[in-house]
Amino acid sequence: MTISKSLKTTILIGLAMPMSLFILGAYNGVMQTLYRAGVLQRAATAGINYYQGLTMHGVINAIVLTTFFAVMFGHFTIVHYLQREPPRWSYIGSLVLMVTGATIDLVVMVLGKASALYTFYAPLKASAFFYIGTAMLIIGSWIAFAGWLKPWREWKREHPDEKMPIAILGTFVNFTMWFMSSIPVIYELLVLLTPWAMGTTDTVHVPLTRTLFWMFGHPLVYFWILPAYVGYYTILPKIAGGKLYSGNAARMAFLLFLVLSTPVGVHHQLSEGAISGGVKLWVSVLTFAVSIPSFMTAFTVGASLEYAGRRRGARGLLQWMKKLPWLRADNYLFGYFICGLILFIFGGLSGIVNGSYTLNQLVHNTGWVPGHFHMTVAGPSILFILGLTLYMFHEVSGKPLHMKLTITIIPYLWMIGVAMLSHGLMAGGLMGEPRRTNLGMSYTNPDSPMFNSHWVPSTTLTMVGGIVMGTAALLYFICFFRMLFSKPVAAARVSLPESEELHEEKDIPLLLTMKPWVVICLVLVATTYVPTIKNVFKYGKPVKNQYQMENPVNIIQDEK
Ligand code: HAS
Ligand code: CU
User: Fold this and answer.
1) Is a pLDDT exceeding 70 seen at residue 123?
2) Which residues contact 390 (CB under 8 A, 6 or more apart)?
3) How far apart are CA 333 and CA 324, in angstroms?
4) How many angstroms separate the Cα of 226 from the Cα of each of 261, 407, 505?
5) CA–CA distance, 455 with 447 (Å, rounded to integer)
6) Is residue 344 lining ligand 1, measured as CB closer than 6 Å?
7) Helix (H) or strand (E) holding 44
8) Ligand 1 pocket, residue 353 CB under 6 Å
9) Annotated catalytic residue within 80, 205, 210, 218
10) Is the confidence at residue 560, as pLDDT, over 80?
11) Could you tell which of 213, 236, 262, 267 is best to mutate to test the pocket of ligand 1, judged by most ligand atoms within 8 Å of the CB?
C-alpha cells in the first residue's frame, strides 16, 4: 500500500535517528570488552568514562533503539494488515515526544551528567533531565499506540467476521503490556527521582525505586522481543518457504505473555534484602511459567521451519535444516531471523537458570547475566531490528539496497560474535567475574594487587566476541547509510511477507479477545506486588545516601 508523505517521513526519521545513535551505542559496547579484558587500564577513553560509556551502551541500544523500532514496526504492521493509516496527530505527536526525549537523554549522557546506567538505580543520581527525557520517550510510544486503535476499530467494523490478524494481536499485546508496566516507571521517574535530582526532596527510597523499575524492567525485555516474535510467526514461515504450523498456538503464546510478563519483575531482585523469601519463591514459579510461551514458540516456529525444509525436498529426520534458505542474498532477511533463533535457544535456557531462586544466588551480578542477555536482546531482538530496519527503510524510502552479499553475511558474523562474547561472560561469571565493573583497572591488570589470572581467558574471549560484533555492526552501518544516502528509485510502499497457516483450525473464543487475559494479569500482578510493596515499606525507608560514580563509599556520613 502507498502511504501519506507525513507517515513516510515519520517512519524514515523514526528508523534513521536511532540507527545513527546506535553507532555510539555499539562503539561503547566494544569499548566495554576492551576495558574488561584489561587492554584498557584506565577510567576513561576519548573523554568518555567507563560508566558513562556503559550508560550510553544500555540506554541507546536497549531503550532508545528498541522503543523507536517497536513503534515504527507497529506503524508498518498496522498499515500493512489494516490497509489504513493511524491518525496524523498520533504518529507525529509520538515522534516529536520520542525524538525530544531521546535527544535530551543523549545530551545529558554525553555531558557526563547521567552515568547511572540504563537501570538508573538510586542512590546513583542522574540529572533530572535524564529522568524527564526517558519519561518523554516512553509516553511518546503510548501516543503511537493510542493512534492505532482508530484504524483497528474501522477495520473491525468493515470486517465483522474476520479474526484479528496475528501480527496485530502480537502488536496490541505488546503495547498493552508495555503501557500497563510503564505506569510504575513513569511514577518512579517523575514523582520520585526527578524531585530528588532537582533537590526538592533530599531522600530516596532505594528498594521502592528498584521495585518500580523492575515492574517495568521485565516487561521491557519482552517489549524488545515481541516484535521479533511477530516476525517469527507471520513473516519467517513465508520467507523460509513454508507455512505457519498453528495460528492458535501463536495466539495463545502472545496472550500468555500478556498475562505473565508484568508479575515476574521481582526475579531481578532475588538478592534484594527488603523482599521476603515467600514472594521470591512465588516469582520463581511464575518465571518458569513465563518460559512456556517461548517454549511454545520454539515448537511452533521449529515445526513451521521443518515444514518449509520438507517442502523444499528434505527427507529423513534432520535434512530439513540443511534445506532452509541459508546465506541467500535474494532472501537476506532469513539470516536475521534464523541467527536470532539459534542464539535464543541458549539465551532462553540461561534465563531459566537465572529464574531459579537458588541458582540465581550463584549468578546474580556476575558476568553470567550480561552473557544471558546478549543472547536475547543482542540476539533475536537486535537481529530482527537490524533486518527489518533495512527492509522497512528500503520499502518506505524507495531507495535501493546495495551490497546484498554483505547484508546477507552480517547476521551470521554477528551471531558468531555474540556466541563468543556470551560464552566468555558466562564462563567468567561462573568463576565470580563481576558485571558492571571496569576490570582493567583492577582484576585483569597484572600490576594490580587484585589481579585474578582466572578471569583473563574469559574476558579475552569476550573481547574477541565484542570485536567480531563490532565488525558486523560496522559493515551494517556502511550498508544502511549507503542506502540512506542513495537516490530513490521506486515509490514509497508498505508491504510485509505474510505467512499462511498450515491447518484450518477451529476458532477458540478465548483466543480472540484480550480482555479476560488483562484481568488475569492484574490479579497476578496483585498477588506479587501487594506483598512486595508491603515488604519494601516494612524493611526499607527513604535515605539520604549518595554515591559517586566510581566509589562504593557512601558520601553522606550520617546515614549508614
Ligand atoms: Fe532475562 C536478566 C530470566 C528472557 C533480557 N534478562 C535479564 C537482563 C536482561 C534480560 C537485559 O529470572 C538483565 C537486566 C539487568 O540489567 O539486570 N529471561 C529470564 C527468563 C527468560 C528470559 C526465564 N531475558 C529474556 C529475554 C530478554 C531478556 C527474551 C530480552 C530480549 N533474565 C531472567 C532473570 C534475570 C534476567 C531471572 C535476572 C538475573 C539477575 O540475577 O540479575 C525466558 O523468557 C526465556 C524463555 C526462552 C526460551 C527459549 C525458546 C527458544 C526459541 C528458539 C527456538 C529456535 C528455533 C530454531 C525454532 C525457553 C524460541 C531452530 C532451527 C535450527 C536450524 C536450529
Ligand atoms: Cu526478567
Assistant:
1) yes
2) 332, 401, 407, 479, 480, 483
3) 13
4) 11, 23, 23
5) 15
6) yes
7) strand 44-45
8) no
9) 218
10) no
11) 267
277 Cβ neighbours under 8 A, 6+ residues apart: 357
Cα 170 from chain centre: 15
Among 80, 96, 92, smallest CA distance to 392 is for 80
Mean pLDDT confidence for 52-61: 98
> Cell numbers of 14, please?
523514526
> Tens digit of pLDDT for each residue in 363-407?
999 999 999 999 999 999 999 999 999 999 999 999 999 999 999
- The conformational region for residue 499 under phi > 0 = left, psi -120 to 50 = alpha, else beta, is beta
Catalytic residue among 374, 443, 476, 480: 374
Q: Is the pTM of this model over 0.90?
A: yes
Q: List pLDDT tens digits, range 315-355.
A: 999 999 999 999 999 999 999 999 999 999 999 999 999 99
Query: What is the CA 18 to chain-centroid distance, rounded?
Result: 14
Note the pLDDT tens digit of each residue in 274-299: 999 999 999 999 999 999 999 999 99
Is any atom of ligand 1 closer than 6 Å to the C-beta of 364?
A: yes
Residue whose C-alpha is closest to residue 351's, from 184, 225, 183, 511 = 225
Q: For residues 6 and 11, what is the distance between their CA atoms, to the nearest angstrom?
A: 9
Cell numbers describing residue 372: 544471558
Q: Is the CB of 436 under 6 A from ligand 1?
A: no
* Residue nearest atom 12 in ligand 1 by C-alpha distance: 355
What pLDDT sits at residue 558?
55
423 is catalytic: no
Mean pLDDT confidence for 13-32: 98
Ligand 1 proximity of 319 Cβ (cutoff 6 Å): no
Handedness of CA 141, 145, 146, 150 (dihedral sign): positive
Q: Residue 311 C-alpha to ligand 2 middle, in angstroms? A: 38
Calculate mean pLDDT across residues 426-438.
97
User: Cell triple for residue 60?
Assistant: 541507546
Among the listed residues 310, 312, 364, 436, the single catalytic one is 436
| Strand partners for 48 | 45
Distance 355 CA to ligand 1 centre (A): 10
Give the pLDDT of residue 557.
64
Is 265 close to ligand 1, i.e. is its CB under 6 Å away?
A: no
372 is catalytic: yes
- Dihedrals phi, psi of 448, to nearest 5 degrees: -90, 145
Could you tell me the distance, in angstroms and rounded to a whole number, from the CA of residue 308 to the centre of ligand 2? 33
Eight-state DSSP code of residue 555:
S
The pLDDT tens digits of the residues spanning 217-241 come to: 999 999 999 999 999 999 999 999 9
d(CA 92, CA 432): 48
Whether 57 is a known active-site residue: answer no
Query: What average pLDDT does this structure show over 244-251?
Result: 98
